[in-house]
Amino acid sequence: MAPAPEQRAVTPRGWCPSLFEPMRAEDGWLTRIKPPRGQITALQARAIAAAAPAGIELTQRGNLQLRGFAEAGLAPFALAMQAAGLASGEAGIERRRNIIAPPLLGHDLGIAPNAAAWLEALEAVLADDALAALPGKFGLALDAGGALPLHGVAADITLRLDAGGAASLHIPGAMARGAAPGHVATLIRAFLAVPGARRMRDATAALGAAALIRAAGLRPEPPMPEPPAPRAIGLLPGATGFGLPFGQMGGDELRHLASLAERAGPGALCITPWRAILLPGPSDPGLLSAEAGRFITDPGDPRMLIRACPGSAGCASGGADTRAAAAILARHPRPPGLLHLSGCAKGCAHPGPAALVLVAQPDGRYALVRDGRAGDAPARRNLSLAEAAAELER
């Protein structure tokens, strides 16, 4: 059973919220929906849109994060989402249910044939109460190929299926072939035995990646190079992709996408980890053209290479309104690569490295990091937004 409202745990700052464990933010409470198989129906989309009090964000895990709840609205919303088939009834399972699925699973014939079975097996692994201590940010990814392989997607454990369905297991610093779901379960138990580890990179730093792979019962190999992320915007094989500026939309946009999904064919909305929503069905250039003013429909749009948290508009830690700054900087020329605007040094919107990072200082000015993370030592400090824009052009 889900916890009663008065028993609901509150996720501490710095942790990922879940449906039954929301987090207080500057603009109200925020909570997350983790769509099963990474997809929602048009009916579910309308239910989410109707209940959303403010903005809806796409996360890097392919989740929907809803902001602006009053505390009294959290329990009814959680129960409604559970009734809609969008959540487990157990708070602990819902917290651990962090799996990035192939975005077009069930719609792309190029996806490995055993992908659905693998996804069910991984869900069963994470549902085991023996893993109750698993941190809320710990996540898995299942890359099954097809038109949109999960390249460039960060996860603690990634399973990659080849065209024949054989699986390789990847963690930071090592990989292994011939993986089965039992190996994943054993690896997670080995991770949990590492004192103080919150993410897999903590465990690999403590024990070594090869030792953890061996603890799972597999033979370690050097990691393979990570290919670039695929293009998830525009006309795709068997789908049309719509990008969201800085990963956010309102309820009206989600309702509109639900209507488009029904027009496109199966009425499904596939949530990706790339700030884009896919509508399976025959590609329609006319539809894409008609929606260019509402969504990002050009894969070359500079906003798709910007990551920005809400900043001071939604977080007490934010030193500046980073999304407003991102909208301004999107119109300025800058070198190729990802630009990350972070409201503070935590770097929640993009924990990985970026070519350029602007970190808001408490006084509203910015520090600049090149080829690093938000928490790295900056190359410049105390920049106004205009000075930062000029610095990005160099």
What report would you give on this structure?
It is a single chain. The protein is of the alpha+beta class. The chain folds into 4 domains: 5-92, Sulfite Reductase Hemoprotein,Domain 2 (Sulfite Reductase Hemoprotein, domain 2); 112-145 and 154-215, no CATH class; 234-301; 304-392, Sulfite Reductase Hemoprotein, domain 1 (2-Layer Sandwich), CATH 3.30.413. Helices cover 26% and strands 22% of the residues. It has 11 helices and 20 strands. The protein has helices at residues 42-51, 71-83, 91-96, 115-126, 181-192, 200-207, 209-215, 251-264, 285-290, 322-329, 385-392; strands at residues 23-25, 28-33, 39-41, 56-58, 64-69, 99-100, 140-143, 157-161, 167-171, 174-177, 234-236, 239-243, 248-249, 268-271, 276-280, 306-308, 339-342, 354-360, 366-372, 380-383. It has a 5-stranded antiparallel beta sheet. Strands 3-14-15-12-11 form a 5-stranded antiparallel beta sheet. Strands 6-7-8-9-10 form a 5-stranded mixed beta sheet. A hairpin with a 2-residue loop joins strand 9 (167-171) and strand 10 (174-177). The chain is globular and about 55 Å long. It starts with 22 loop residues before the first strand and ends with a helix.
Estimated structural class: alpha+beta
* Main pleated-sheet profile: 5 strands, antiparallel
User: Mean pLDDT, nearest integer?
Assistant: 92
As a whole number of angstroms, the C-alpha radius of gyration is 20 Å
- How many structural domains? 4
Q: What is the helix fraction of residues, given as a range?
A: 25-40%
Q: Tell me the distance between the termini.
A: 56 Å
- The backbone outline, from C-alpha atoms, is globular
Give the low-pLDDT segments.
1-14
Strand content: 15-25%
Order of neighbouring strands in the sheet with most strands? 1-2-5-4-13
Number of strands: 20
Continuous helix count:
11
